[in-house]
Amino acid sequence: MAHLIEKTTEKPTPRSDGKPERGVELPHRAGWVGAVRDWIEERTGLFGFIKHHLDEPMPPGVGWWQTLGNLLLTLLIFQFITGFALAMFYAPTPDHAHESVKHITENVPLGAFIRGLHHWGSSFIMLVVVLHILRVFFWGAYKKPRELTWLVGVAIFQVILAFAFTGYLLIWDQKAYWATVVGTRFASTVPVIGEWLMHFLRGGKEVGALTLTRFYAIHIMLLPVALVLLTAAHLYLVRRLHIAGPVVPQKGAPQPFYPYQLFRDAVVVLVGMGLLMTCALLFKPPLYPVADPSGTAFTPRPEWYFLGLYELLKLMPPKLEVLGTVVIPGLVAIGMILLPWLDRSPSRHPAYRKWVIDVGLIVIFLIGTLTLKGILSEPPEVIPQSTSVSSSTTGSR
Amino acid sequence: MRSNGLEYQQQQPDSPIRRRVLSWLVGLINLGVIVGFIAPVLGFISSPARRRREPGEWVPVLNAHELKPGETRAVTYSLMVKDGYTTAEHRYSVYLYHRSDGTILAFDPSCPHLGCRVEFKERKQRYVCPCHGGVFDTEGNLVSGPPPTGLTKLPVRVDGGKIWIQRV
Hints:
The complex is a heterodimer of chains A (about 400) and B (about 170).
Chain A: H1 2-10, H2 31-44, H3 46-54, E1 57-58, H4 68-87, H5 97-106, H6 111-138, H7 147-167, H8 174-188, H9 194-202, H10 209-241, E2 255-256, H11 257-282, H12 307-315, H13 321-342, H14 354-376, H15 389-396
Antiparallel strand pairs in A: 1-2
Helix pairs in contact in A: 4-6, 4-11, 5-6, 6-7, 6-11, 7-10, 7-13, 8-9, 12-13, 12-14
Chain B: H1 2-11, H2 16-45, H3 47-50, E1 58-63, E2 72-83, E3 86-98, E4 104-107, E5 119-121, E6 126-128, E7 135-136, E8 142-144, E9 153-154, E10 156-159, E11 162-166
Antiparallel strand pairs in B: 1-11, 2-3, 3-4, 4-9, 5-6, 6-7, 7-8, 10-11
């Protein structure tokens, strides 16, 4: 340990020289494994690069709260894997989408479990990304020099919302269809270009085959590429600028990332993935009857993470609808983007950022209340996934 | 910084053993999570490959009197096939050969080399694979080319005036 402390204390935290990160020299190893490793190392610097990042000193006081980013990254990677697996059995056409999802859930071995992981995974991701944002907000970790890290994080949050919105049309059931009808109608309330924007999103006047293929293409191609690029930028910035330590600097020496912080990360991932798998095992992902544009008996409601917005719209008088669809969500998004510049306080301590914290708490309270109101006012479930599904299939298409 | 480090060392004694134990736990937990997650995904995506093959069904393909002695004929037939989430009509073909002794042979038209569909050349009385040049005689035996074996023979019977083949 003496060696360890000496090593970690030699390096300033956070890095102050602003120079790019570099790998470290590794000792040569004997045997053919060592020879192969040296051969790769000499050409790529890969192992030195990994070791350099594993040895990254963590400021004292960094602990369990800093594990949320890693949990989010793990959930996103696993969501990509289950999405890839589901895409092997899925057909993005109105004639077959619902049928293929039903086949996955009922006939393919482990299908309900894998669909469950993907379905509940989106809720887990939403929960963890919000907790991660709140942690950064309350710790004031978006302040100089980490403004760009925050901005990229906000963009990642928007991409995750877009993933959720485009994802649930794909199963082409009543909930998916009507939530998309309502969701894309939001776009029509945008001043001047509203109608055009809605038609662009839908690929026509109505939600139909072209909406499904558009959403599928966005969901499996555009958004994953955007997410990979943004996540790479986010991780690069986090590593370059180092993790923001506690608001009040703690006594003690920095600890290397590996194994100390990585152990906490692993425990949190184990618990998080355990909970997700339990959810996927216990609760079959819902599948309502096939999308029916003529249906009147179905009350469309979005997923829980969009319920706040859904309740907000209920409160808006018709003339002020644009407030609920564009202005208020837009202001929240702009507020998040500008946060590092709106918060002028030089201190990261919440006590010295009173108005920012107060506004943040009010926004959190309002979103939380609206979401809770939406959850509590949920009407009785309407016949999820019945045997009459196939007759609806022929009836509606 | 250095004094803080020493202080910290005194407050929370660390050791190479603790570091090693934590390293092992990190490896074990991560390995467990990855295996626990990837195994069902692999089970899911490989499920079509693990499906048990049903014994081939018997299908009537031609009226027996239509196939003259010494004649080789390509016959197509349709079946309703369950294909993933859908059941659709699939078209298949088979070569029938009426031997001079009265027996009938049925050949799967897929080349045993790499699966291209072989073509029967009437004039030469040979099956020829257009992909890599495999050549077979009217009995389905390999004459030349890269295929490892002759054409696949299908069980065949005549019943009720019709020629039936069993799909493989």
